[in-house]
Queue: 2 jobs
Job 1
Amino acid sequence: MDRFALNFEDGGRLALRDKRRLSRAVLDPDLSRLGPDAAEATRVDFGRLGQGATPVKARLLDQSRIAGVGNLLADETLWRARIDPRRPAGELADEDLDVLRRALRAATRDAIRKGGVHTGDLIAERRRGGRCPRCGATLERAKVGGRTTFWCPADQAA
Ligand SMILES: [Zn+2]
């Protein structure tokens, strides 16, 4: 069932279908409340990510800091950057933030090129008993920032 649809005068139709009911449509949104786009976020933008005790994964999902990062892309990015998703954002060093920024850019580009965030290297293993595509360790699973999160305990060490 469509949660939202636009019918165009030429007969075209744009529909939002979402069985899990996590998405929403906002008409005439206040874009000033959104952070910079994930693919274009700068070092300065990432500097604002790395403050306080909030887990870094929750910060990545905060659309007011950086826009466009959902649950799967956040897990893929943190896995590529080898950063523990539970790590307090304020503990990240400048080098960590640089690694994270590059990982997000690469993961975003790959997702666009391959047709969606579900094509990420980690995503097929996001299940109970799933294994790290890099080292083969069994992935950890927990709620971080209110969302189900998977990470590799071997190479995403705190
Ligand atoms: Zn691993």
Job 2
Amino acid sequence: MFNRVGVRLINQVRNASSKTEIGVVGVPFEKGQRKVGVGNAPKVMRDAGLINSLKQIHDKIDVKDYGDITYSIDHDISNAVPNMIMYEHMVACAKALSKQVTEILNDGRICLTIGGDHSIAVATVDGHIQAKSNVALLWIDAHADINTNLTSTSGNLHGMPVALLTKELSDYWPYLPGMDWQKPVMSIRNVAYIGLRSVDSFERLLIDNMGITAFGMEEVEKFGIDQCVHMALEKIDPTHSKSIHVSFDIDSIDSLEAPSTGTPVRGGLTLREGIHLMEVIHKTGRLSAIDLVEVNPSIGTKHNVDLTVSAAIHIIAAAFGYSRKGLRPKVDDLPIQTPPSST
Ligand SMILES: [Mn+2]
């Protein structure tokens, strides 16, 4: 039975989990690539119980759902830039999303953005930088997403966000009409990749020549996920003072465990590694924004979709402090009258 010391210990544990305020925004955007369905992910994730899963992590979680991003396009800039498909859509959605992310952060909440394809991260990272200038970015992905319109073989914008965000790449772009609000102020020194295993040749050249911090699957294999996350954070946030942004592409997870995604790649992170990565980042206490992108509920069987959505929710929950060890009971719930059964 719990004695008074036991109750005191429980109170200490309870108080140790600090108040966490989360702001959720859905981005039903899929025009950064060519496959239909990824825009339905916010609805499917909410229908699968995302918001309740967050509320149940611990009793000091407060969740506000800001709804979905809407936007209207400027037809004058369609086809304005070569080899950038549906450019005018990305521009309009990104502008609205960046504002929303800034607002959520200024409300004192951690921003959880549910994509949508990965092109939306141009906006989430920009909105984060607007609110908190000193940002470190972890890009968890099978792909490097650092093509420009000149190096991309597809013209898909979801392969370009890192190149749009970083100042070292800014000289490689033509003038981008409608994007004047977005300043590529982030240094590539503040970006680290984890999970890479499908990197285009120009992307590899950039990563090598610019010395970009990148833990591909070889490094995950060699050092283990725990070391990789710690080393990545040391590289991009050596003073342990930056506001951390995690842009998590579900295709970083092996396609056996997260099959419903547009560009699946085998040999990826296990769900366990994805969860552990987020647990490490949670423990920094400096996580401000998460993107969870590229879940496509139109790909695969219902079982495939269920697997992928539940993997995504597990990863998000870990980022907000879900404990695989279990949490002790709240003091109010203690069975004072009824001792716990020994069986
Ligand atoms: Mn990606």
